[in-house]
Each structure stands twice: as structure tokens, then as C-alpha cells.
Amino acid sequence: MATALQQDLTGKVALVTGSASGIGRDIAETYAKAGAAVGIADIDSEAAQQTVNAIEADGGRALAIVMDVTDEQAVNEGVQALVDTFGSIDILVSNAGIQIIDPIDKMDISAWRKMLAIHLDGAFLTTKAALKHMYQAGSNGGTVIYMGSVHSHEASLYKAPYVTAKHGLLGLCRVLAKEGAEHNVRAHVICPGFVKTPLVEKQIPEQAREKGISEEEVVSDIMLVNTVDKEFTTVSDIAQLALFLAAFPTNVFTGQSIVASHGWFMN
User: Fold this and answer.
1) Structure letter (DSSP) for residue 161
2) Residue 255 — φ and ψ, nearest 5°?
3) Rounded distance, CA 39 to CA 15, Å?
4) Which of the residues in the chain have pLDDT under 50?
């Protein structure tokens, strides 16, 4: 039987962390438009509710969930609230993240630990909480998507904990692909290039100060230097890729990372 591409998530329930803004919000809104009920998990309760209001105004279904992804109790309670409200969890997008720019010799251990806790501990804790439901008898399994980066494969100056964490997500994804197979749970890593989100906007002046160059040079000579067309990846590019993976009818891509970067890092 031929594989038919799908974009319909009707009847599915998704949890997207860090979804009150940026890439996470675009993914959540895209999933809601495709028919999914979406948990808007974020540490910013007011912004999470604003995202819910926008989804509901567009005819979708969503739930605001206050969640610090480094807090196991908060994660477990948030996932349970989503299941209690909508009946299941079929899709997890582990997207919450931050960025800290500093050379290794100047970086505080507290900054290192904070980065790894949010990116890696958060991915592990949300995955573990979701699997409790995805592995249940009678469940249809699920899809887990980790928000990696080109820095899951490459390295850049002044981003030691970020690069380390994003590399770590590849390992978590690959192990989950193997462990989850018998439960029909698949795992993917999306690896964007530079996306002009508030997180990236913040990095531009930081890197300009650190390197003693203009902000324009940061963009053209650092951020986009290895792209083939000097273009930023867009939040819509990543949201549509997340929809493609969540809606794909088979598990053929499980364990894989997909790079979306205008040619920066070709694999």
C-alpha cells in the first residue's frame, strides 16, 4: 500500500513545552489548526493563557499549563492535567530552551547547569511523563519530537552548554526510538538553523559585544555565513516540519534528526 502524506491531527492530543512564544507557539497553533487539542506548557502563565485564547478564538482547543520543565512534580502534574482534560497524550514536542553566550573560561558553573537542566533534564522528564500514558495498554503509541539545532551536529564559539545539550538530545532520541518501538512510540529531533525568534534576536547584540563587531556582521558573517542563500529559517518552516513528523502515517523516520537550515550542515 502506498504511503499517503497527511496533515490531519484530528483526535490527537499534543503537549508543546515552551509554547507561549516563538517556535513553540507556532507549532502549537499549527497543531491546533490541524485538529489537535494542545497543551500550552510554559513557565510564563500569562503568555501561555494568551496563546490558548488565540487558539480558541480560531476555533481550536487548548489548555494553559504552568510548567517548569526542570521540576519533576510540575511536569508530571502538567501532563496529567492534559490527559484529564483531553483524554490522552499522543504527541510531545520538547521545545523549552534558553541560550547563554559565554566563552568556556568565563562561564559560571551555574549557567552550565541551568542550560543542561532546561534542555536535557526537561526533555527527559517530559518524555518520561508522556511515556507513562503512551505505553499504556490500548494506547496508540505516540510521537516525541525534540527541538534540537544545527548545533546538535556542529559547534560554535561561546555556546558550550547549548551545543552539549543539543548533542545530548540526539542520544535521548535514538534510545527512545529503540525502546519505544514495541509500544509504537517514535522519536525525532528537529534541527533548525538560525530562526529569528526572540532567543536569536537576543544573541545578536550579545555576540556583537563579545566579538567587537557590528550586529550586521554577526548576522552575515557568523549566523548565516554557512547557509547557501543567507536566509534565516522561519518559525513557519519548523512548525510545518513538526506537523509533517507528527502526522506522518508510519514510523519510518524514527530515531532520525532532520536539519532545516538553508544548507548549513548537510548530512
Assistant:
1) H
2) 85, -5
3) 5
4) none
- pTM exceeds cut of 0.85: yes
Rounded to whole angstroms, the Cα distance separating 80 from 88 reads 9
112-130 in b/e form (b: 16+ CB < 10 A) is beebbbbbbbbbbbbbebb
Q: Among 93, 210, 114, which residue's Cα sits nearest to residue 164?
A: 114
Q: Could you list the active site residues?
A: 162
Residue of 170, 32, 173, 90 whose CA lies nearest to 79: 90
How many angstroms separate the CA atoms of 262 and 193, rounded? 7
Q: Which three cell numbers stand for residue 260?
A: 532545516
Per-residue pLDDT tens for 215-233?
A: 999 999 999 999 999 999 9
- Whether 125 and 172 have beta carbons less than 8 Å apart is answered as no
d(CA 216, CA 222): 10
